[in-house]
Amino acid sequence: MADGVELTSASKGNVSLSVTPPLSVLTRKQLTELAIPVRVPLLGDWLTERHPCMVYAQTGQGKSLFSMSVAMAVASGGRVFGWKAPQPRPVLYVDAEMDRADIKVRDGLLAQTVAGGDAEALNRNLHVLTRHGQPDGAVFPDLVEPAGQKALLALVQQLKPALVILDNLSTLAEIRDENDASAFGPVLKMLWSLRQLGCAVLLVHHTGKNGSAFRGSSKLAATFESIIKLDRSRDIGPRETGFVIQWDKFRASPDARGNSQKVQLVEGPDGDWKWVTEEGEDQALFEVVRCVRSRDYQLDKHIAEALGITTVQMSRLRKRAILGGLITDQEWRACLQEARSMAGCELLAEGDGDLESTGGGHE
User: Fold this and answer.
1) Domain-embedded: residue 362
2) Within 13 Å and on the Cβ side, how many CA atoms surround 76?
3) DSSP code of residue 23
4) β-strand partners of 279
5) How many domains does the chain have?
6) Is 173 part of any domain?
């Protein structure tokens, strides 16, 4: 095969050639001088342009509610789950499972939950493609079959969405053996093709039988920059709607792994629905450690006051942070000591920063 030219077929002495583009290889000098646009945020500080994400949960846990809420926030430039979209952007939502009538009902409910969005932009930017309601013979997107892949890519090239949501993997791809890593090859290639077209991708998936991890090969995990699990909360009753947003992976901020926040769909006194967000204790752990390392606080009780928690809660979080390996007891004490030194205070005896030694940490 000659450079950039691949021999594809030969018959009756006639040779058919297919020209393939050469690979683009950069020297470090070329890379440093290359003008590469910064990936613009689409929602919060995690979902950016060309960002691949997977969200997974057990059946009926709220995957579609979560995904459609994200779609509406991005499309309208609104806020949901504590994340703000900087500006309205086009979104393509592909649903291969639900009836259009059910999606319409959910749309009306969830539109109320996105705060500060532009209603006209939402109507213009959110494109919903459902398997239900398609004409006979229409080729619906598929992540494995070539015809379905071609249909999805053509639609993306036409609509030019900033975000594509695929709901869900089980209904958009027939994978005979989910434990076979190679079986996911076509899916991974398709996700990469969408990123090449400039799209962020949110893939909706299910948990495995034990409910602790996503279904299928672990090869999927390497593809995504973030992986979100929606977990059950003991505080939410069986007839209530809500979940805990758990970060299994966030490549841009590895420390975010393990962070969580509880969200619940509640009806207000005026009849409007909204998502109520409550940070989980795991999130509070990271916030407490961040405060300690900032050297802005001289005592544990000062951090408790800044975070609006009791000294008992502060003592519990300190113990959990140290036992969990987020920070050592030695580093904790040194940070508080440095804060006092920078503030010009007299150095306190060792242990004075500990709530329990000051009498504030006993339950």
Assistant:
1) no
2) 23
3) P
4) 261
5) 2
6) yes
Place of tokens 């639900």: 98
Which amino acid, one-letter code, is at 314?
M
Which residues are 127's β-sheet partners?
92
Distances (CA, A) of 228 to 51, 53, 160: 13, 8, 25
Distance between CA atoms of 349 and 220, rounded to whole angstroms? 52
* Separation CA 155–CA 158 (nearest Å): 5
Task: Specify the pairing of strand 5-11 against strand 14-19.
Answer: antiparallel
pLDDT value for 302: 93
CA angle 160, 161, 167 (to 5 degrees): 130
**One domain for residues 179 and 114:** yes
- Whole-angstrom Cα distance, residue 76 to residue 89? 7
298-327 confidence digits (pLDDT tens): 999 999 888 777 888 899 889 988 887 778
Question: Contact, 76 vs 88, CB < 8 A?
Answer: yes
d(CA 278, CA 264): 8
Instruction: Count Cβ atoms within 10 A of the Cβ of residue 155 and give its class: 0-12 exposed, 13-18 middle, 19 or more buried.
Output: middle
Q: How far apart are CA 274 and CA 254, in angstroms?
A: 30
